[in-house]
Task: inverse folding
């Protein structure tokens, strides 16, 4: 069953582009990656799905219900960590979390304290005294204290130190293992590669690719490096080869398609070294963006 279904979702801010004609599905129980640089439309998409803003055209459903019409009802079972967290400055952390918990029918006290302990959050400190990283930790606890079925994470690790980043990833995995569907938006590609089952790449407000990460790496491109005496880059200038570079007798390139023509060329050489590997998600991503 699809938890999220977006159909031709479009948002303009006056004449300024937000997102254009987005259509995608997020399946129950998956961690769905949503990647693109700042300004690509990631946060706009999340805010539309949460009905915090309204689309110019198109529609979206969560659990089969229209996001706009049923927004308040749907949000009771959704957790959301925005990319930027803003709070009432003079409140203590515990008061703010209790206030957030009061919006949900269940008793969130136990889960709230478990999460605060895990994130090493000092509950009696005032919000105004917290660093950006600690405010982010408040946002993580707030987003999870009511045990949501669907979690929207917008740049979740920004401002966190490496230890807290690792704890956050572990927490997200644990939530996912208990059945929570996760929509994970980030411009940090290594995070998406570590966490996600499938990924959508968004460029200038449009989705340009949706694939599972293994397919994106295996079926898309191979990264080839060949070292041989007297080797010239023109030797590998064949269909399917891109990003061809030549330096000191070593040729590097991306290759898409049947690998055998490349292997035949390599076998005719006296090589000193050959590597053929999957590109990282970052290299694939940059290929789409160039």
Result:
């Amino acid at each position: 069953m699809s938890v999220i279904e977006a159909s031709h979702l479009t948002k303009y801010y006056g004449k300024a582009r937000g997102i254009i004609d987005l259509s995608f599905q997020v399946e129950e129980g998956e961690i769905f990656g949503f990647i693109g640089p700042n300004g690509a439309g990631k946060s706009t998409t999340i805010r539309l799905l949460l009905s915090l803003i309204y689309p110019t055209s198109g529609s979206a459903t969560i659990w089969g219900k229209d996001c706009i019409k049923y927004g308040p009802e749907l949000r009771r079972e959704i957790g959301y960590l925005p990319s930027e967290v803003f709070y009432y400055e003079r409140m203590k952390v515990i008061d703010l979390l209790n206030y957030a918990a009061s919006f949900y029918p269940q008793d969130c006290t136990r889960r709230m304290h478990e999460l605060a302990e895990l994130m090493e959050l000092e509950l009696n400190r005032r919000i105004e005294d917290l660093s950006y990283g600690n405010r982010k930790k408040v946002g993580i606890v707030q987003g999870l204290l009511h045990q949501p079925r669907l979690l929207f994470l917008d740049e979740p690790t920004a401002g966190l130190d490496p230890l807290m980043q690792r704890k956050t990833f572990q927490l997200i995995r644990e939530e996912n293992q208990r059945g929570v569907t996760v929509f994970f938006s980030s411009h940090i590609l290594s995070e998406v590669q570590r966490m996600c089952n499938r990924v959508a790449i968004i460029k200038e407000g449009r989705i340009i690719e949706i694939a599972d990460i293994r397919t994106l790496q295996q079926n898309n491109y191979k990264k080839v490096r060949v070292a041989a005496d007297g080797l010239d880059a023109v030797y590998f200038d064949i269909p399917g080869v891109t990003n061809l570079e030549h330096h000191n007798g070593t040729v590097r390139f991306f290759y898409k398609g049947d690998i055998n023509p490349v292997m035949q060329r390599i076998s005719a050489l006296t090589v000193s070294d050959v590597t053929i590997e999957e590109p990282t998600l970052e290299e694939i991503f940059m290929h789409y963006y160039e």
Summary: The chain has a mean pLDDT of 91. The chain has two domains: 2-212, 220-289. The radius of gyration is 23 Å.
